[in-house]
Design a protein that fits this description.
Bound molecules: adenosine-5'-triphosphate, magnesium ion
Radius of gyration: 23 Å
Distance between the termini: 39 Å
CATH superfamily of the largest domain: ATPase, nucleotide binding domain
CATH architecture of the largest domain: 2-Layer Sandwich
Structural class: alpha+beta
Number of domains: 3
Number of strands: 21
CATH class of the largest domain: Alpha Beta
Strand content: 15-25%
Low-confidence stretches: 431-445
Length: 445
């Protein structure tokens, strides 16, 4: 196997996720020195993540305004002053490519208020933003930009394996429209990027060669879905797919949804719907605060766990409910398990655990069903990647419920796909049998 593709001096990979997106890169001469952007900050609550939320804001003139936390924050501040009319905020729009059978140039995505725009335009803007961020923050630094030209860059874009070829080509077209030259661009399947990364970090999983000819499972626990695959590494460093990608809606987003559902049970559907519809920014703020609390929750957490709600939500409850919070808690047999103080709610850890357990248990059941298949009985190793597997709770649950298997979760599992995609870009022969190639003359209608 050649150790690198000599044509390109720098590989940058973009991982376009349902909930979070980001990039990583490395130089041809230091291929294993893979760097990521140092962290995206929400600018307010102290939340710093290694990828930015997949969220895009457009001005009333239909121009791109911002991406990630900046987009969320700008929309929030506009809404606080009631100046947000006409602005469009698109969140989590990648799901569209999972679900749309007859994707074409006219296919639209809707923003948080139900206003639609052509999907190709939104995807193009998002990819262009990521490329621009990389070029201005990394590439144009004097120590790089002086020595390299943009022609020296190889771009890699990750795509889910389960997408139709139409969806994959849609991404390629969006990327080319965003300014990624077709000849410099490769698409990489997410599970293969994850496999490449896990198998290249010898420290945590022992000898790489050990995996040749041995089937292993990859679980990508992302935001929207848990995607499960079984692969085998062949002698020529390509991967053979033994079990076609499957999975379900068991990503980290399910925990947020369970929290909201539970809160709805307590405060009432009318109040929660009003809150979401009439105070959307406050609603997103509440979810961002939940995100921070969620990240520090583990099986060792005991007692009450505190989450910041919103004063507006509690006001809405007062205005729309005949009862008060204390009575509601008592009638729901939650005395001692739930407390309200100012704009915070404290919930017993046993309740919080159920929000995590619901998706995790379903995912584990699914994994067990796959592993029970006679043709997959030899699978001993399970590699787990994706942001949701950063959760200590998830980590412990997997180790406990699948203890007869060897579970490997690399460091920073949320970055495994994007780092593996950089390796994929450097090593042209890897996964050569399954590379998503450009189809000559393919054009979306
Ligand atoms: N430390 C943590 N604890 C709990 N959940 C976490 C942690 N870090 C990230 N997450 C969750 O992981 C999810 C994001 O994971 P990831 O970035 O892999 O998803 P994605 O790539 O956007 O989604 P997909 O791969 O489904 O398109 C979010 O739901 C986030 O809340
Ligand atoms: Mg992902």
């Amino acid at each position: 196997m050649s150790s690198h593709d000599p044509k390109f001096k720098l590989v940058v990979a973009f991982d376009f996720g349902t909930t979070y997106s980001g990039y990583a890169f490395s130089f041809r001469d230091f291929p294993l020195h893979i760097k990521t952007n140092c962290g995206w900050s929400d600018g307010a609550d102290g939340l710093v993540t290694m990828k930015a939320p997949t969220c895009l804001l457009m001005t009333p003139e239909d121009e791109f305004h911002s991406f990630g936390y900046e987009a969320e924050n700008k929309y929030s501040s506009l809404a606080a002053e009631d100046k947000h009319r006409g602005w469009l905020l698109f969140r989590r729009f990648k799901m569209l490519l999972h679900n749309t059978e007859h994707l074409n140039r006219k296919t639209t995505v809707t923003d948080i208020n139900g206003v639609s725009r052509p999907a190709i335009k939104i995807f193009t803007m998002a990819i262009r933003y990521l490329k621009h961020h990389f070029i201005t923050n990394v590439f144009q630094q004097p120590e790089i930009g002086t020595f390299l030209s943009e022609r020296d860059i190889k771009y890699v874009l990750t795509v889910p394996a389960i997408w139709s070829s139409n969806s994959k080509h849609f991404m390629r077209e969006a990327a080319v429209e965003a300014g990624l030259e077709d000849r410099q661009l490769k698409l990489c399947l997410e599970p293969e990027a994850a496999s490449i990364w896990c198998l290249s970090i010898t420290k945590s999983i022992g000898n790489v060669e050990h995996f040749t000819g041995v089937p292993f499972m990859v679980i990508d626990l992302g935001g929207g879905t848990a995607d499960i695959y079984v692969n085998e590494k062949k002698d020529d460093h390509t991967f053979k797919e033994l079990y076609k990608a499957g999975g379900g809606p068991w990503g980290g987003k399910a925990v947020d949804e369970n929290f909201v559902k539970w809160l709805m049970g307590l405060l009432g559907e009318t109040v929660m719907n009003k809150f979401k519809e009439e105070h959307m920014c406050e609603y997103f703020d509440m979810l961002r605060n939940f995100e921070m609390a969620k990240r520090s929750f583990s099986a060792d957490t005991t007692g009450l766990v505190s989450f910041k709600l919103s004063k507006i939500l509690l006001q809405l409850f007062d205005e729309n409910s005949d009862s008060d919070l204390r009575t509601i808690i008592s009638e729901s047999n939650l005395d001692g398990f739930v407390e309200f103080k100012d704009d915070h709610i404290s919930v017993d850890s046993s309740i919080v655990a159920t929000w995590f357990l619901e998706p995790i248990s379903q995912m584990i059941e699914y994994v067990k069903t796959i592993l029970a298949r006679p043709d997959l009985s030899k699978v001993e190793n399970i590699l787990v990647v994706g942001g949701f597997s950063e959760s200590k709770f998830v980590h412990d649950e997997l180790n406990e419920k699948l203890k007869d298997k060897t579970i490997t979760i690399p460091q920073d599992p949320g970055l495994a796909v994007v780092r593996g995609a950089v390796r994929f870009g450097q090593l042209p022969t890897i996964v050569s049998s399954r590379v998503v190639k450009a189809v000559p003359n393919f054009k979306l209608q």
